[in-house]
Predict the structure.
Amino acid sequence: MAIDTGIANDFEVVIGLEVHSQLLTKSKMFCPCSTDYAYAAPNTHVCPICMGMPGVLPVINEQAVAYTIMTALALNCEIPAYSKFDRKNYPYPDLMKGYQISQYDVPLSKNGYLTIEHNGQVKRIGITRVHLEEDTARLLHRDGYSLVDINRSGTPLMEIVSEPDMRSPEEARLYMQTLREILVYLGVSSGRMEEGSLRCDANISVRPRGQQKLGVKSEIKNMNSFRSVERALAYEAQRQIELLRTGQPIHQETRGWVETKGITVAQRSKEYAHDYRYFPEPDLPPLLISRAWVEELRAQLPELPDARRARYVDEYGLSAQDANVLTEEKALGDYFEQVVAASQTSDRKARAKAAANLVLNDVVRLLKNSSISIQESPLSPAASANLLDLLEKERITGKQAKEVLEEAFASGNMPDVIVQEKGIEPPISDLGVLERIIEEVIANNSKAVSDYRAGKTNALQRLKGEVMKQTRGQAKPDSVQTILIAKLDETPTS
Ligand SMILES: [Zn+2]
């Protein structure tokens, strides 16, 4: 279904996103419980701290703080030397203590940005802050009652708040995709929106174009894919514009996105900061962040997607398009680089191009057909490199390479082993041999020859097919074509 993002010209849409990401730490934010609960039975990864028992004391997870600072650095934020945790009070049954430990007025970082690319234009989206908090328990609603699974309670949760700098649902989706790429590259987040480890809430308002004052906003929740972010915001923008056009008020409220119906529905009136009665968390000391530690973390930052894309274009001579697709998923780019590194070739640029083609066309197709990820590929980077080596040395033809590739993908064997086992002969490189075969084919297929001379173009294909058959596919198609045409044109008409 096409997404209607055609928002009216007389109104401007203003969007800011709040993204929550669980962090890939081994243990929870304030207790030693394991965060590896995805496939665990309910309430098995719990202790008195994450169950919110009275009298227990939380201890800050240093790795979670490090991941948050790394993310903030990657998003060009300032890291203040002093930060602290606060209590955010609200009475929900998924909040075991009756409050969440979060950060209020002195977050771990502030004032950053990230850049998105939209229609060839680069746009900077401000990052207000990146802070650290804890996830809640999970409620499972049944018929007339609810169950609570506390496994998720206390999982480190990083919140990334953007400035209201986005002007269309499409920009919001691009921001979300760019941010996700960065988090996955940093290794701090699994990036799995479908599992809820990466979540997005959006603040959206509309105003007549040219007006400075922001309109009344609503907050949209429950969007669990890039596509639903874009669809929900397009719907909500249209809804608000309709209200303004018909002179009705917009209420500040929280609305939920209903994926199946493609609409947002009112959930509750929006809370304001004072509703939460924030106060400094008395059970935790403030965080004093040394400059030395920040610089240590900065030095540990991996290459980020933008830098990698630029390097693929400069160093490997790839097209911007190929570089984009290869870097979208970090694992795919890693695989591509391993193929290039494992190759026995002196021409690295030519090999990088061949590797990019192999990965983006063939490997991606095979993975898709078997519904597996690149990390699970039975075809190792070394096997892909081996296949490209065989092609470069003209040990196999392009057509044979396709077969060998399918086999290598299915069995996990190395292409050179497969070539040996299947007894694939080297291609006919002796042009004398090829010429004799072509002459025989011409002599034995007079009908096709006269058709060709009568101008029927498909006759050439028939003759070419016959030569390929006679050579058992071991001749190079371009050589066959060239010699065949030359012979047909020189042989005197009988
Ligand atoms: Zn615990």
About this structure: The first helix runs from residue 62 to 74. The pocket of zinc ion is lined by residues 28, 31, 33, 46-47, 49-50, 154 (CB under 6 Å).
